[in-house]
Amino acid sequence: MLTLNSTPGNPVPPGGVLVSLRADDGVELRAAHWRPTTRNVRGTVCLLQGRAEFIEKYYETIGDLRRRGLAVVAFDWRGQGESGRQVTDPHKGHVARFDDYRRDLMAVRDSILRPLLPEPHFCLAHSMGGAIALTGAFEGWLPFRRIVTVAPMLSIRMVRFSTAAGLLARAMHRLGLGRRYIFFGNGTSMATKPFAGNRLSTDPNRYARNADAARQVGAGAVGDPSIAWAASAFRAMARLNDRRVAPAIAIPTLIVAAGADPVCGTAETERFAAALRTGDLILLPGARHEILSERDAVREDFWAAFDAFIPGSEPFDRERIGAAAEARV
């Protein structure tokens, strides 16, 4: 039975509706949606998680969005959280191919977004979710009016020789080893590792909160990915870094990059953003990979950029917001 888990420092936002739905290939997905806490309804934001994330990790963000007059839908991608698995080890972050994530998002669109939640629809995408959103925008199937993506997965800094790693992962996948963990991989969630030296946040309190939430969801906070996931991820990133992709994206896009991101490459993110014809970039100095779980000053800068971009009724002053972020350093 699906649940929304709660810890003392991370209670479930009140008023949510928990939903079980199925993608068109039968994989069960966990989703939930909330109405705004304001009288004025400004639209809906769909949260697109990063790899190994889960709904519980976004409770604070859900509250922030609802106070802005926005309905929210959150869901777990297949292979993580409490959504269905395609391997027997529930701790293994596995997906057969990145195209399957499109199936998940289309299921959420058809079952929740379109029939239940107010227009206009926007997305707030983190890391892997950003790569999925940008791919969908390029291919023309993304069901959102505007995109905000935080530290999108356009490259992976955790791998020293990424080109060679990608070739090796694809070769092993073709040999039928796609369901195995990546080399030296295991089922331990990155979110439960010690704060000292972590790659995700400089805020010890939010880091501890997320670690408690990860322990509460258990296998939902998956560990390392499978070889199939890695092969698909490298293929997706290579495609996004084709110089023809960014200029072809027609959906207005705000990219918020972390200046001290040890997970995804900030330089690649800046190059991609510079090529967008309908996009803007905000760089938050000193922030690590999980901007939404960062210290208050970083989050304030993020929300200032978000509020200027969503729902799009005001001119977006990138220079003013960027200068304010620089001044906080």
Automatic annotation (TrEMBL):
<feature type="domain" description="Serine aminopeptidase S33">
    <location>
        <begin position="40"/>
        <end position="296"/>
    </location>
</feature>
<dbReference type="InterPro" id="IPR051044">
    <property type="entry name" value="MAG_DAG_Lipase"/>
</dbReference>
<dbReference type="InterPro" id="IPR029058">
    <property type="entry name" value="AB_hydrolase_fold"/>
</dbReference>
<dbReference type="InterPro" id="IPR022742">
    <property type="entry name" value="Hydrolase_4"/>
</dbReference>
<protein>
    <recommendedName>
        <fullName>Serine aminopeptidase S33 domain-containing protein</fullName>
    </recommendedName>
</protein>
<dbReference type="Pfam" id="PF12146">
    <property type="entry name" value="Hydrolase_4"/>
</dbReference>
